Amino acid sequence: MDNSVYQNPLITRYASKAMAENFSDEKRFKLWRKLWIALAESEMELGLNISKAQVEEMKKFAENINFELAEKYEREVRHDVMAHVKAFGAQAVSAEPIIHLGATSCYVDCNSELIILSDALEIIKTKLVNVMDKLAKFALKYKDLPTLGFTHLQPAQLTTVGKRATLWLQDLTMDYNNLVNLQKSFKLRGVKGTTGTQASFMELFCGDEKKVKELESKVVKKLGYDKVYGVTGQTYPRKFDYNVLCVLSQIAQSAYKFSNDIRILQNMKEIEEPFEKSQIGSSAMAYKRNPMRSERIGSLARFVISLPMNSAITAGTQWFERTLDDSANRRIVNAQAFLALDGILNIYMNVSENLVVYDKIIARHIAAELPFMATENIIMECVKAGGSRQRLHEKIRVLSMEAGKNVKERGLENNLIELIKADKEFTAVHGKLDEILDAKKFIGRAPSQVVEFIENEVKPILTENSTVLGQKGDVKV
């Protein structure tokens, strides 16, 4: 690494090698050559004056990019596509006259970009389902463990640790479905010519529309795809970039929510993210166990969430058939959105697989709040034994206020149950309080909901993607 110049932290610290390679120049320029070969071979098959020897010579150099020569040509011509046409022609000499025949720069630039985005979505999908798999196992393991629910970040009715995990899972399930729907609508730009009219190819094939349409079909099939945009300008619709970034943003939103919940739970000492033996939480406070993984998820997620607006502006400011003010912007925003989300999911896998649950702390927090939540049950039991609902309600209100003071003003434990035990009005429940205060009586259908949700909505996704499960998240630093 050259430490004398800025290094992109998405590459050096966060994203995986696979995602970094997916957006590399090597992959992009090899795709360009693949596209030029598919075009020339299809033109030959449809009768243009291109020889098999020319196509074979192009194939010979398909993987051997002469980068230095291409860079030299780009400094001269100030055009990246033409620089690579010339560099390819310098190797495949016999084919030099027919490389890029009839095409515009966006033939290679747009189609290759779409393929790169498609491959990147597949990497994201694989990591997403691995996170879902880990959360599903966690949810099932802790489906019966009661914990305080929170609304407005205030203690509310009980839920279970596993049920809370299904809320994270449900967000990811929605994200997965959005991603798959995006993949189903995926199309290449195809072979459209300079302004999308295919005029250059009509000229090449002497006005034969059938052959021009067949050319596009052949090229797309050689690339392994079957759908193209019916109409384009010079580029594929930039709204597609916006749709992609919206899906990435949604996944980032889900990860952000998870990371915030874990950070709060770690503050409460109920659940912690993994903390390694030699890990340092603070340079000053040696005892600290900062939730740095979850904080990093949030930090990167904030970046990804902000990016769709950038693509929206790009899509909205394209003039007529195309303007070039999208190019430099898209080189940054598309790649970095994927690299950042890749980093997020790497950490999300790591955290979700290694969460530490402290059930005794959870039980202590329940014990501090459950007496208040159980008051309605206590009143109903006493009414069954002949007591007055209104009289009992007022008694409970007064005793609850006293217990609240004990906690808030005196810094002592919640003593509501002791106050109830000492009051003759509640004699009917004095022998039943332990049973009434069983936390599992306050979690409703939470355990069943966990099982049903995972069986009905998560398991089909995991089954469909079973061959890619088992990945582990790599936290570089």
Walk me through the structure.
- This protein has 477 residues and is mainly α.
- Helix content is 63%, strand content 4%.
- It has 20 helices and four strands.
- A two-stranded antiparallel sheet has the order 1-2. A two-stranded antiparallel ribbon has the order 3-4.
- A hairpin with a 2-residue loop joins strand 1 (146-151) and strand 2.
- Helix 3 packs across helix 10 (209-222), helix 7 (105-141) runs antiparallel to helix 20 (446-464) and helix 8 packs parallel to helix 20 (446-464).
- The protein is elongated and about 105 Å long.
- The mean pLDDT is 94.
Give the mean pLDDT: 94
* Cα gyration radius (Å): 31 Å
Q: Which overall shape is indicated by the principal axes computed on the Cα atoms?
A: elongated
- The number of helical segments is 20
Characterize the main sheet: 2 strands, antiparallel
Q: What proportion of the residues is helical, as a percent range?
A: 55-70%
What's the helix-strand series? HHHHHHHEEHHHHEHHHEHHHHHH
* Strand content range: under 5%
pLDDT below 50 for ≥5 consecutive residues: which ranges?
none
Terminal Cα span? 16 Å
Class of secondary structure makeup:
mainly alpha
